Amino acid sequence: MVMISSDVPLIDLHRHLDGSIRLETILEVSRQYNLPLPAWDIETLRPFIQVTDPQPGVMAFIEKFKWMVGILVDYDVCRRVAYENVLDAQAECIDYIELRFSPWFMAEPHHLDPEGVVEAVVDGVESAKRETSMEVQLIGILSRTYGPENARLELNALLSQRDHIVALDLAGDEANFPGDLFLEHLKIARDNGWQITVHAGESAGAQSVWQALLELGASRIGHAVHAVEDPALMDYLAKQRIGIECNLTSNVQTSTVKNYPSHPIKQFLEHGILATINTDDPGISGIDLAYEYEVAASAVGLSELQIRQAQINALEVSFLTSEAKEALILRKNRL
Predict the structure, then answer these.
(1) pLDDT at residue 62 in the model
(2) pLDDT above 90 for 333
(3) What integer pLDDT is reported at residue 89 of this predicted model?
(4) Each residue's pLDDT tens digit, 79-134
(5) Domain contains 6
């Protein structure tokens, strides 16, 4: 089994906070608020929430979220979930994590105010950071699935806490809601000093990645699986040092790739592209970051050197400042 390099910070750049909720928390909150659940003990509940077989597509995978966001009955629960995300990252021995969340997606089941959700998430993360000394940054998501008008409301909610958010992501139903619907939203985000990362090339083709880079201003791409279909795009990604947030198990479970050996991360790395290894929605995939490095990456066919390179890439393309990156390396080498 390939081991994670102990001299390089362990980093997760692509983890959905609302796809990483403890089963124990789902049970406890559901009992407290008399919420419906399909089962009332962890092991019986697990197959309803975690993917056990590949799903027919990304949106079918997203259906699994309903039991997670279904417990977000108020801002205190949102705060708790954010807080626990940081503690869970620390328990995984992660040195730095970027947690992303869609306030509209979290607010919708119980008709919360998205701005209140953002405030609660920020408060929960900040509280956990003080308690753990974990290095954490937040990425806000605009969910394509709700359309551009709701995305504007979602953007305004995120901007209410702009100093606590490092970047903006565009996620959701890529196939039916193309990036050109959100050009103005992403411009506003860039004008406010945020970095941009976009889910692209997962449910749509290479052109979606081109658009994310050239029109939406992305410096990182989530998934980008279909980028391998365009040699010119592969060259561009390498030359421009664009970070790719690969999610190995997630891509198998959404049927974005047929199996682990079909995943393009090996081609990315061989092409000199700054590909990274991440968890996506570990609460739904039933994995953690160590699994992705030690099991999934090996199943893909990555060499130990390539797996180490992915770990190094994550530090380079993270949204940390240069000073923070240096401090993270120093702290890692002191441990």
Answers:
(1) 74
(2) no
(3) 98
(4) 999 999 999 999 999 999 999 999 999 999 999 999 999 999 999 999 999 999 89
(5) no
Q: Is the pLDDT of residue 234 over 90?
A: yes
Overall domain count for the chain: 1
Q: What pairing do the DSSP bridges indicate for beta strands 195-200 and 220-223?
A: parallel
With pLDDT > 90 as the criterion, what percentage of the chain qualifies? 88
| CA-based nearest residue to 220, from 153, 146, 139, 284 | 139
Euclidean distance between CA atoms 204 and 304, whole angstroms? 31
Q: What end-to-end distance do the CA atoms of the chain give, in Å?
A: 23
Q: What share of the chain is helix, strand, coil (3-state, %, to 5)?
A: 55, 15, 30
Backbone phi and psi for residue 137, each to the nearest 5 degrees, phi listed first:
-130, 155
Determine, yes or no, domain membership for 5: no
What is Dmax (Cα atoms) for the chain?
Answer: 54
Answer yes or no: pTM beyond 0.85.
Answer: yes
Q: Which domain holds residue 135?
A: 11-334
In 3D, which of 57, 26, 62 has the Cα closest to residue 42? Answer: 26
- Residue where the block lists tokens 């390539």: 306
In a domain, 132, yes or no: yes
pLDDT of residue 281: 95
- Cα 243 to Cα 102, 119, 246, 247: the distances in Å are 21, 29, 9, 13
> What's the pLDDT at 310?
98
CA angle 184, 186, 189 (to 5 degrees): 115
Cα 159 to Cα 51, 154, 188, 223, 326: the distances in Å are 33, 9, 10, 25, 29
Which CATH number is 101's domain given? 3.20.20.140
The residues near 42 (Cβ < 8 Å, ≥ 6 apart) are 23, 24, 27
* Residue 73 burial (10 A CB sphere; 0-12, 13-18, 19+): middle
Residue 234 lies in a domain: yes
Assess whether 202 carries a catalytic annotation: yes
**Active-site choice (84, 98, 135, 202):** 202
